[in-house]
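Example for tutorial group B:
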Protein backbone atom coordinates (compact mmCIF):
# COMPACT_ATOMS: atom_id res chain seq x y z
CA UNK A 1 0.00 0.00 0.00
CA UNK A 2 1.56 3.31 -1.10
CA UNK A 3 1.44 6.65 0.64
CA UNK A 4 -0.86 8.04 -2.03
CA UNK A 5 -3.35 5.25 -1.39
CA UNK A 6 -3.40 6.03 2.34
CA UNK A 7 -3.77 9.73 1.60
CA UNK A 8 -6.96 9.03 -0.32
CA UNK A 9 -8.61 7.83 2.89
CA UNK A 10 -8.26 11.30 4.46
CA UNK A 11 -9.85 13.21 1.61
CA UNK A 12 -13.23 14.54 2.77
CA UNK A 13 -15.80 16.67 1.14
CA UNK A 14 -16.85 19.93 2.70
CA UNK A 15 -20.03 18.39 4.20
CA UNK A 16 -18.05 15.51 5.74
CA UNK A 17 -15.54 17.89 7.35
CA UNK A 18 -18.43 19.88 8.84
CA UNK A 19 -19.99 16.72 10.25
CA UNK A 20 -16.70 15.63 11.84
CA UNK A 21 -16.28 19.05 13.48
CA UNK A 22 -19.87 18.93 14.83
CA UNK A 23 -19.27 15.40 16.22
CA UNK A 24 -16.13 16.50 18.04
CA UNK A 25 -18.04 19.49 19.41
CA UNK A 26 -20.78 17.21 20.82
CA UNK A 27 -18.17 14.96 22.44
CA UNK A 28 -16.47 17.94 24.10
CA UNK A 29 -19.81 19.33 25.37
CA UNK A 30 -20.75 15.94 26.87
CA UNK A 31 -17.39 15.73 28.61
CA UNK A 32 -17.87 19.21 30.08
CA UNK A 33 -21.40 18.27 31.31
CA UNK A 34 -20.03 15.09 32.93
CA UNK A 35 -17.34 17.01 34.85
CA UNK A 36 -19.34 20.05 35.93
CA UNK A 37 -22.95 18.85 36.44
CA UNK A 38 -23.87 17.23 39.82
CA UNK A 39 -25.74 13.97 39.25
CA UNK A 40 -26.24 13.21 42.99
CA UNK A 41 -29.84 12.39 44.30
CA UNK A 42 -32.25 15.22 44.91
CA UNK A 43 -31.24 17.26 47.89
CA UNK A 44 -34.65 16.93 49.56
CA UNK A 45 -33.92 13.27 50.26
CA UNK A 46 -30.57 14.21 51.76
CA UNK A 47 -32.28 16.77 53.97
CA UNK A 48 -34.72 14.14 55.18
CA UNK A 49 -31.89 11.79 56.00
CA UNK A 50 -30.08 14.54 57.87
CA UNK A 51 -33.21 15.26 59.91
CA UNK A 52 -33.48 11.59 60.92
CA UNK A 53 -29.82 11.51 61.86
CA UNK A 54 -30.22 14.64 63.97
CA UNK A 55 -32.99 12.89 65.93
CA UNK A 56 -30.93 9.73 66.48
CA UNK A 57 -29.15 11.15 69.52
CA UNK A 58 -32.48 11.99 71.13
CA UNK A 59 -33.84 8.50 70.38
CA UNK A 60 -30.74 6.90 71.91
CA UNK A 61 -31.10 8.98 75.07
CA UNK A 62 -34.76 7.94 75.39
CA UNK A 63 -33.76 4.28 75.05
CA UNK A 64 -31.21 4.69 77.83
CA UNK A 65 -33.82 6.36 79.98
CA UNK A 66 -36.40 3.62 79.39
CA UNK A 67 -33.88 0.87 80.11
CA UNK A 68 -34.15 1.80 83.79
CA UNK A 69 -37.94 1.37 83.78
CA UNK A 70 -39.06 -2.05 85.02
CA UNK A 71 -41.61 -3.83 82.79
CA UNK A 72 -45.17 -3.99 84.10
CA UNK A 73 -46.29 -7.23 85.73
CA UNK A 74 -49.78 -8.48 84.93
CA UNK A 75 -51.80 -11.04 86.95
CA UNK A 76 -50.70 -14.61 86.25
CA UNK A 77 -51.14 -18.13 87.55
CA UNK A 78 -47.85 -19.08 89.29
CA UNK A 79 -48.38 -22.74 88.36
CA UNK A 80 -47.47 -21.90 84.77
CA UNK A 81 -44.29 -19.90 85.30
CA UNK A 82 -41.75 -20.74 82.59
CA UNK A 83 -37.96 -20.42 82.79
CA UNK A 84 -38.06 -17.02 81.10
CA UNK A 85 -41.01 -15.78 83.20
CA UNK A 86 -39.27 -16.85 86.40
CA UNK A 87 -36.06 -15.12 85.35
CA UNK A 88 -37.96 -11.89 84.64
CA UNK A 89 -39.61 -12.10 88.07
CA UNK A 90 -36.21 -12.41 89.77
CA UNK A 91 -36.30 -16.11 90.67
CA UNK A 92 -33.08 -18.10 90.72
CA UNK A 93 -32.52 -21.17 88.56
CA UNK A 94 -32.88 -23.49 91.57
CA UNK A 95 -36.16 -21.87 92.60
CA UNK A 96 -37.57 -22.24 89.09
CA UNK A 97 -36.41 -25.88 88.91
CA UNK A 98 -38.11 -26.67 92.22
CA UNK A 99 -41.42 -25.37 90.84
CA UNK A 100 -41.04 -27.23 87.54
CA UNK A 101 -40.18 -30.48 89.34
CA UNK A 102 -43.24 -30.04 91.56
CA UNK A 103 -45.47 -29.46 88.49
CA UNK A 104 -44.14 -32.57 86.75
CA UNK A 105 -46.16 -34.57 89.27
CA UNK A 106 -49.29 -32.81 87.93
CA UNK A 107 -49.61 -30.99 91.25
CA UNK A 108 -50.61 -27.36 91.73
CA UNK A 109 -49.78 -24.66 94.26
CA UNK A 110 -52.98 -23.06 95.51
CA UNK A 111 -51.68 -20.15 97.57
CA UNK A 112 -48.71 -17.81 97.94
CA UNK A 113 -47.58 -19.78 101.01
CA UNK A 114 -47.59 -23.07 99.09
CA UNK A 115 -45.64 -21.35 96.31
CA UNK A 116 -42.96 -20.29 98.81
CA UNK A 117 -42.91 -23.74 100.43
CA UNK A 118 -42.24 -25.36 97.04
CA UNK A 119 -39.81 -22.82 95.54
CA UNK A 120 -38.12 -21.57 98.74
CA UNK A 121 -38.19 -17.98 97.44
CA UNK A 122 -37.29 -15.23 99.89
CA UNK A 123 -39.95 -13.28 101.76
CA UNK A 124 -38.98 -10.08 99.96
CA UNK A 125 -39.44 -11.63 96.51
CA UNK A 126 -42.70 -13.29 97.54
CA UNK A 127 -44.08 -9.99 98.82
CA UNK A 128 -43.17 -8.36 95.51
CA UNK A 129 -44.82 -10.93 93.20
CA UNK A 130 -47.59 -12.49 95.33
CA UNK A 131 -50.05 -9.58 94.70
CA UNK A 132 -50.01 -10.60 91.01
CA UNK A 133 -50.87 -14.27 91.64
CA UNK A 134 -54.19 -15.26 90.07
CA UNK A 135 -55.64 -18.65 90.98
CA UNK A 136 -58.73 -20.32 89.46
CA UNK A 137 -62.17 -19.51 90.84
CA UNK A 138 -62.62 -22.76 92.74
CA UNK A 139 -59.42 -21.90 94.66
CA UNK A 140 -60.04 -18.20 95.15
CA UNK A 141 -63.66 -18.64 96.31
CA UNK A 142 -63.28 -21.50 98.76
CA UNK A 143 -64.62 -19.48 101.67
CA UNK A 144 -68.40 -19.25 101.88
CA UNK A 145 -70.02 -15.86 102.19
CA UNK A 146 -70.56 -14.93 105.80
CA UNK A 147 -73.98 -13.98 107.15
CA UNK A 148 -74.73 -10.32 107.22
CA UNK A 149 -74.73 -8.85 110.72
CA UNK A 150 -77.93 -7.15 111.64
CA UNK A 151 -79.47 -5.37 114.60
CA UNK A 152 -82.36 -7.21 116.18
CA UNK A 153 -84.88 -4.46 115.56
CA UNK A 154 -88.21 -4.74 113.84
CA UNK A 155 -87.45 -1.47 112.07
CA UNK A 156 -84.82 -3.19 109.98
CA UNK A 157 -85.46 -6.07 107.65
CA UNK A 158 -83.31 -9.17 107.99
CA UNK A 159 -80.78 -9.49 105.20
CA UNK A 160 -80.90 -12.92 103.66
CA UNK A 161 -77.76 -14.90 103.10
CA UNK A 162 -76.94 -15.39 99.42
CA UNK A 163 -76.72 -19.11 98.72
CA UNK A 164 -74.41 -19.71 95.78
CA UNK A 165 -75.53 -22.39 93.35
CA UNK A 166 -73.12 -24.58 91.41
CA UNK A 167 -73.27 -23.24 87.86
CA UNK A 168 -73.07 -26.80 86.54
CA UNK A 169 -76.24 -27.69 88.47
CA UNK A 170 -78.15 -24.53 87.52
CA UNK A 171 -81.35 -24.88 85.54
CA UNK A 172 -82.86 -22.57 82.99
CA UNK A 173 -85.20 -21.21 85.68
CA UNK A 174 -82.26 -20.51 88.03
CA UNK A 175 -80.46 -18.53 85.35
CA UNK A 176 -83.46 -16.50 84.25
CA UNK A 177 -83.81 -15.12 87.77
CA UNK A 178 -80.55 -13.18 87.31
CA UNK A 179 -80.91 -9.60 86.16
CA UNK A 180 -79.83 -9.36 82.51
CA UNK A 181 -80.26 -13.06 81.74
CA UNK A 182 -83.27 -13.84 79.61
CA UNK A 183 -84.46 -17.06 78.02
CA UNK A 184 -82.04 -16.81 75.06
CA UNK A 185 -78.98 -16.04 77.20
CA UNK A 186 -79.83 -18.83 79.63
CA UNK A 187 -80.02 -21.31 76.74
CA UNK A 188 -76.65 -20.13 75.46
CA UNK A 189 -75.08 -20.72 78.89
CA UNK A 190 -76.58 -24.22 79.13
CA UNK A 191 -75.52 -25.04 75.56
CA UNK A 192 -71.96 -23.89 76.29
CA UNK A 193 -71.93 -26.08 79.40
CA UNK A 194 -73.01 -29.11 77.35
CA UNK A 195 -70.35 -28.45 74.71
CA UNK A 196 -67.62 -28.37 77.34
CA UNK A 197 -68.99 -31.17 79.47
CA UNK A 198 -69.20 -28.71 82.35
CA UNK A 199 -67.63 -25.43 83.47
CA UNK A 200 -64.40 -25.55 85.47
CA UNK A 201 -64.06 -21.79 85.94
CA UNK A 202 -66.49 -18.88 86.11
CA UNK A 203 -64.14 -17.09 83.72
CA UNK A 204 -65.54 -19.33 80.97
CA UNK A 205 -68.74 -17.31 81.02
CA UNK A 206 -66.79 -14.67 79.09
CA UNK A 207 -66.83 -17.10 76.14
CA UNK A 208 -70.64 -17.10 76.03
CA UNK A 209 -71.70 -14.71 73.29
CA UNK A 210 -73.89 -11.82 74.39
CA UNK A 211 -72.91 -11.68 78.07
CA UNK A 212 -71.92 -8.19 79.17
CA UNK A 213 -69.44 -7.63 82.04
CA UNK A 214 -72.33 -6.49 84.25
CA UNK A 215 -74.30 -9.69 83.65
CA UNK A 216 -71.19 -11.82 84.26
CA UNK A 217 -70.70 -10.01 87.57
CA UNK A 218 -74.34 -10.76 88.52
CA UNK A 219 -73.81 -14.42 87.67
CA UNK A 220 -70.67 -14.55 89.80
CA UNK A 221 -72.66 -13.15 92.72
CA UNK A 222 -75.16 -16.03 92.52
CA UNK A 223 -73.25 -18.98 91.10
CA UNK A 224 -69.91 -20.68 91.67
CA UNK A 225 -67.93 -23.81 90.81
CA UNK A 226 -68.64 -25.95 93.87
CA UNK A 227 -66.69 -28.91 92.55
CA UNK A 228 -65.15 -29.92 89.27
CA UNK A 229 -67.50 -31.86 86.98
CA UNK A 230 -66.74 -35.40 85.79
CA UNK A 231 -65.12 -34.55 82.47
CA UNK A 232 -64.41 -36.86 79.57
CA UNK A 233 -60.87 -35.70 78.98
CA UNK A 234 -59.21 -35.45 75.58
CA UNK A 235 -56.16 -37.67 75.07
CA UNK A 236 -54.05 -34.90 73.60
CA UNK A 237 -51.21 -37.28 72.66
CA UNK A 238 -53.40 -39.62 70.59
CA UNK A 239 -56.36 -37.55 69.42
CA UNK A 240 -56.65 -36.83 65.70
CA UNK A 241 -56.95 -33.38 64.17
CA UNK A 242 -60.71 -33.86 63.83
CA UNK A 243 -61.10 -34.92 67.46
CA UNK A 244 -58.99 -32.00 68.73
CA UNK A 245 -60.83 -29.46 66.57
CA UNK A 246 -64.15 -30.53 68.12
CA UNK A 247 -62.92 -29.18 71.49
CA UNK A 248 -64.30 -25.66 71.99
CA UNK A 249 -60.90 -24.04 72.62
CA UNK A 250 -59.08 -25.77 69.74
CA UNK A 251 -59.92 -24.46 66.30
CA UNK A 252 -58.88 -26.48 63.26
CA UNK A 253 -55.62 -24.57 62.63
CA UNK A 254 -54.55 -24.97 66.26
CA UNK A 255 -55.48 -28.67 66.22
CA UNK A 256 -53.33 -29.12 63.13
CA UNK A 257 -50.41 -27.31 64.81
CA UNK A 258 -50.79 -29.54 67.89
CA UNK A 259 -50.59 -32.74 65.84
CA UNK A 260 -47.66 -31.37 63.83
CA UNK A 261 -45.75 -30.36 66.98
CA UNK A 262 -46.52 -33.74 68.55
CA UNK A 263 -45.19 -35.66 65.55
CA UNK A 264 -41.95 -33.64 65.53
CA UNK A 265 -41.27 -33.40 69.28
CA UNK A 266 -42.97 -36.41 70.83
CA UNK A 267 -45.78 -36.60 73.38
CA UNK A 268 -46.90 -33.62 75.44
CA UNK A 269 -46.04 -34.04 79.11
CA UNK A 270 -48.08 -31.16 80.51
CA UNK A 271 -49.79 -27.91 79.60
CA UNK A 272 -46.43 -26.09 79.55
CA UNK A 273 -45.55 -28.04 76.39
CA UNK A 274 -48.81 -27.03 74.73
CA UNK A 275 -48.44 -23.31 75.38
CA UNK A 276 -45.25 -23.34 73.29
CA UNK A 277 -47.41 -23.75 70.17
CA UNK A 278 -48.02 -20.56 68.25
CA UNK A 279 -51.62 -19.41 68.58
CA UNK A 280 -52.39 -21.33 71.77
CA UNK A 281 -54.72 -19.30 74.10
CA UNK A 282 -52.20 -18.99 76.94
CA UNK A 283 -54.52 -16.84 79.06
CA UNK A 284 -56.94 -19.79 79.25
CA UNK A 285 -54.33 -22.49 79.85
CA UNK A 286 -55.17 -22.89 83.54
CA UNK A 287 -58.64 -24.29 82.82
CA UNK A 288 -57.97 -25.82 79.38
CA UNK A 289 -55.51 -28.14 81.12
CA UNK A 290 -58.36 -29.65 83.13
CA UNK A 291 -60.04 -30.90 79.95
CA UNK A 292 -56.91 -32.69 78.70
CA UNK A 293 -55.27 -35.99 79.50
CA UNK A 294 -51.48 -36.18 79.03
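The residue assignment follows.
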Amino acid sequence: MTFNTIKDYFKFSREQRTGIIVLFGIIIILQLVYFFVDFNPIQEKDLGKQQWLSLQAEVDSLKLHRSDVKPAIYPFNPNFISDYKGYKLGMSVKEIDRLLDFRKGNKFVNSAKEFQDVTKVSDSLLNAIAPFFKFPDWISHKKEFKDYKYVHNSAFAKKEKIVLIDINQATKEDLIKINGVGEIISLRILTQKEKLGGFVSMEQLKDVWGLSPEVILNLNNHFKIAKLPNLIKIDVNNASIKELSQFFYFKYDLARQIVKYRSMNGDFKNIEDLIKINGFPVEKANFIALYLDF
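Confidence is low (pLDDT under 50) at residues 144-158. Compare this with the pattern of hydrophobic and polar residues in the output above.
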